[in-house]
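About this split. The held-out portion is used to measure sequence recovery: a designer receives only the structure tokens and must propose an amino acid at every position. Recovery is the fraction of positions where the proposal matches the reference. Here is one held-out target exactly as it appears in the evaluation file.
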């Protein structure tokens, strides 16, 4: 059923229509701009006929109804409206559980109240942060409770290696796409972060995880300076805002 759902989705059309072309279509947890990205990996293309055949072979020839949930957040709404149209042509009918406040939606998903759940992920520089907690047996974000000890062994082995070349060979295989046996996740896109700042902001380097990092100029201990500030943490945030950088 999961493979049929994935084969009913046109990722490029979804990105262009639902997200105004702002994202990069993708089918895995590793971003294309990562040194760990597997360039040989190809996303499945939409194949409605095969999706219907898979459902029929599974004894689900009649239109299958799926109840899903999504968070109460503007960025999630377009995608939520786009997915049902794709799935219905492949023989799947979606019934939304309704939009929820984010924390409540997460809890309901953890409690197993959803058959499907649409959620985004800000991304981590090291792919382990995008894979392990959601895919490993007993992972803190593994709401599906899927467990594959052989896959866990690969994931844990990759954690022991710091050499980029060696990790490159391990991490791209360290996830279970929906089209693979035991797969639980269907990846749709990679968000593109846009950061604006004035020319006089120095020592800033964009890191593709959505987190802002500012390095102090040589000779200045920013940590000590902030610690001495009466405003403490608030001073750090306000200084970033004054510099024109989203906090």
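Reference sequence for scoring:
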């Amino acid at each position: 059923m999961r493979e049929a759902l994935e084969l009913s989705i046109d990722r490029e059309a979804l990105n262009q229509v639902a997200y105004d072309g702002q994202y990069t279509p993708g089918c895995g947890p590793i971003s294309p701009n990562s040194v760990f990205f597997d360039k040989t990996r190809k996303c499945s293309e939409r194949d409605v006929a095969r999706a219907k055949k898979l459902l029929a072979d599974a004894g689900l020839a009649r239109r299958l109804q799926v109840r899903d949930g999504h968070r109460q957040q503007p960025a999630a709404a377009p995608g939520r409206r786009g997915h049902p149209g794709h799935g219905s042509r492949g023989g799947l009918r979606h019934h939304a559980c309704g939009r929820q406040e984010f924390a409540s939606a997460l809890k309901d998903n953890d409690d197993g109240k959803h058959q499907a759940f649409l959620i985004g992920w800000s991304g981590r520089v090291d792919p382990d942060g995008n894979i392990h907690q959601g895919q490993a047996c007993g992972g803190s974000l593994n709401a599906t409770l899927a467990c594959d000890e052989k896959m866990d062994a690969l994931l844990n082995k990759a954690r022991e290696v710091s050499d980029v070349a060696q990790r490159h060979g391990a991490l791209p295989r360290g996830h279970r796409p929906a089209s693979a046996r035991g797969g639980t996740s269907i990846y749709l896109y990679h968000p593109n972060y846009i950061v604006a700042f004035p020319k006089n902001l120095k020592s800033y380097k964009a890191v593709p995880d959505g987190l802002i990092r500012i390095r102090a100029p040589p000779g200045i201990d920013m940590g000590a300076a902030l610690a001495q500030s009466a405003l403490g943490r608030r001073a750090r945030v306000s200084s970033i805002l004054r510099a024109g950088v989203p906090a």
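Annotator remark: Residues 77-89 form the longest helix (13 residues).
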